[in-house]
Design goal:
By secondary structure, the chain is of the alpha/beta class. The protein has one domain: Rossmann fold. 35% of the residues lie in helices and 32% in strands. The protein has five helices and five strands; from the N terminus they run E-H-E-H-E-H-H-H-E-E. The protein has a five-stranded mixed β-sheet with strand order 1-2-3-5-4. The longest helix is centred in the middle third of the chain and has 11 residues. The two termini are 17 Å apart.
Length: 120
């Protein structure tokens, strides 16, 4: 089973059994959930061994840096940081590793990050 989640992570996972998914994509939602650590933990439980989780979101450090050096103005900065939770690529990667995943891809393009981890 492949699961693509763009909103309401909890409802999307409700009827999914543990170790049922080959792939889970959390597309721009990790910044909007109440407890991102619990959400990622719940998603990892749903992955099969060899399964992959892909997380996309805005990269906090890159946005802050762009504002500080004048690449973006305050209006654009406020648009980009409108999420309740902001993360860096390294923070998400470290959390996935702490949950036992092997990071297989990490990249930042513009202000967006994509990280992929595989459950051994």
């Amino acid at each position: 089973m492949k699961l693509y989640i763009k909103n309401d992570v909890e409802a999307s996972l409700k009827d999914v059994g543990d170790a049922e998914c080959e792939e889970i994509v959390l597309d721009q939602v990790i910044g909007d959930v109440e407890d991102p650590v619990k959400t990622m933990t719940d998603c990892v439980k749903k992955l099969r061994h060899g399964g992959t989780i892909i997380i996309t979101g805005r990269e906090a450090f890159i946005i802050a840096e762009a504002f500080v050096i004048g690449v973006i103005d305050i209006n654009r900065y406020n648009q980009l940081v409108s999420h309740a939770n902001m993360f860096t690529l390294d923070t998400v990667g470290g959390l996935l590793e702490s949950l036992g995943l092997r990071i297989t891809k990490k990249r930042i393009e513009d202000f967006e990050m994509v990280i992929e981890g595989t459950r051994p």
